[in-house]
Each structure stands twice: as C-alpha cells, then as structure tokens.
Amino acid sequence: MAFTAQAYYLLQLSPEYDVLIIFNGVSTFFTYMLIRVAAIKRISNYETEERWEFFLKNIQFIRILTTLAFIVCCVLFFFLKREVQYALIVPGIISVLYGIPLKLSRKLLRLRDVGVAKIFLISFVWAYIGSVLPVINADEDFLNKGVWLLFAANFLFIFGITLPFDIKDLRIDAIHSVKTIPKLLGTESTYTLSFLSLFISGALHFYLQRNISVTGINYTVPIGVFMLITGLTIYLTRKKQNNFVFFGLLDGMILLQFLLIYFYKR
Q1: What average pLDDT does the structure give for the chain?
Q2: Is the Cβ–Cβ distance between 223 and 210 less than 8 Å?
Q3: What are the CB-based long-range contacts (under 8 Å, 24+) for 178-182?
Q4: Contact assessment for residue 113 and residue 176, using Cβ atoms and an 8 Å cutoff
C-alpha cells in the first residue's frame, strides 16, 4: 500500500487513496499466504524455526485468512477502473505463479525455482505497482520518462534489498537446487551488488526529482535519508542473521520510504 502511494508524491500527482491502495494491500497479503499454503509440504521439511512452527501450528487459521483475502480481492477488483484491471493482468499472473507449482512434463515447476529469475520477477512486480499502476489509476500517461525512471529506481531498490534475503535462504534454495545470485557470485560479491543497486536507485531518484518532477516539492532530502538508512540496514544483515533484521527492518524500508516522503511534504 505504501509503495503504491509513494509514487503519487514522487511523480507530483494528486494522491489517490482509493480502492487500488486497499486492493494492493489485500492482494499482497493473499499472495504471500497462498505461496506459504501451497508450499506446506516443503515447509514441513525445513529446519526448525519459530516462524515455520507458528505457520504449521496455525495452518487451518492461515487457510481461512487466505480464502477471505481471495474473496476480498475478487470483490475489490470489480471496483477498479477498467484500465487498472487490464494493467494488473501481467503482475497478477507472475505473483500467483511465483509460488503455485505448474505441472510441466511430469514435473512441478514454480517461477521462483527458475534459476536467478525469482529476484527479477519480484523486483519487476514491486517496481510496477510502485510506478506504472498508480499512474494509470490517476489517468495519466504511463509512457513518459518520469514514470519509467521511477520504475527503474524502484526495480533496483527492491533488487538491492532482496539480495540479502537470497543470501539468508542459501541453505533452503540449495535443498531445492535453486541457483540464486549468491550461489553464483558468492556472498561478498552479492553484498557489493546490493549496495551498487541501492546507489544507482538513489541516483535515479535524484535525477527524477531534480530534472523531471520539478513542478512541486523536491524529495531528494527524504530519499537521501532513506537510502542511507537502507544501506546501513543491509550492512546490518551481514552482522545479524535473525528474522527481525530481515522481516522487521529490511522489509520495513518499504514503509519507511513512504513515511519520510509523506511527512516531508507536510
């Protein structure tokens, strides 16, 4: 929800806190829960960990939540603009097939198991909902330079903060023979790539604010603060491999970006 909303401010559009914002929140929740439910057999074989124990212990409740989220998504979808509905087709298909196995040539295949592709799929979907989708919802031209600069900046940002997760999941991915970037490049080179992606993302944001979106508030200050904090958080993942650092702090950078931009405008 926050990642969608920040696009309105960064592109100098009037914020629209409407059905799309709610839909993106509920559909993201549904997607993550669906992926977990579909992978319950895999999760049962994982090493003992508090979050997986919680998941398995409450599987029936989680299935109910997943079903309810799906119903809400279906209802909200019909309240979206027709153009937005069409624009949701590609990211929607990618999101569902990311974790739901397809039977191909007697083998079950998930998009997240296709080599290094999973991180690019994640980055694409998040970048899309944080740039193209809100612009279409605002009835603006999504083919202009500013939108695609924001798309690229978002893509590199998500790419950068997802790489540490791939490092964290090296053992799980090895079990399923999934070759991720850390597996191919090594941990140190992957961290270097993560910092480089974050740096380029910040540079694109700065260019967008100083040369393209120049008709309103310049958001280079909150973006600079946000990128610095994100970089420090990525560095922290090298020192502390616990769930709070990853799922609380690093994932929380998505929310922090919006909050800094929102209150800077105020």
Answers
A1: 87
A2: no
A3: 178/112, 178/113, 178/115, 178/118, 179/115, 179/116, 180/115, 180/116, 180/118, 180/119, 181/116, 181/119
A4: yes
pLDDT, tens digit, 9 for 90 and up, residues 226-262:
999 999 998 988 877 777 777 778 888 999 999 999 9
CB 232 within 8 A of CB 248: no
For helices 145-168 and 187-207, the axis angle rounded to 10 degrees is 160
Residue/partner pairs of 240-245 with CB below 8 Å, 24 or more apart: 241/168, 243/50, 243/51
CA distance 16 to 151: 19
Count other Cβ atoms within 10 Å, centred on residue 59: 15
Q: Report which residue type is found at 194.
A: S
User: Between the CA atoms of 262, 139, 119 and 61, what dihedral angle is there, to the nearest 10 degrees?
Assistant: 80
Asked if residues 161 and 226 have their Cβ atoms less than 8 Å apart, the reply is: no
How far apart are the C-alpha atoms of 258 and 157, rounded to whole Å? Answer: 14
Q: Which residues contact 262 (CB under 8 A, 6 or more apart)?
A: 5, 6, 9
Which residues face 104 on adjacent strands? 107
How far from each other are the two terminal CA atoms of the chain, in whole angstroms?
A: 19
Spell out the residues 6+ positions from residue 216 whose beta carbon is closer than 8 angstroms to its own: 12
Rounded to two decimals, what is the model's pTM?
0.89
Residue 126 contacts residue 3 (beta carbons within 8 Å)? yes
| Distance of alpha carbon 9 from alpha carbon 137, whole angstroms | 14
User: Facing residues of 107 across strands?
Assistant: 104
pLDDT tens digits for 52-93?
A: 788 888 889 999 999 999 999 999 999 999 999 999 999 998
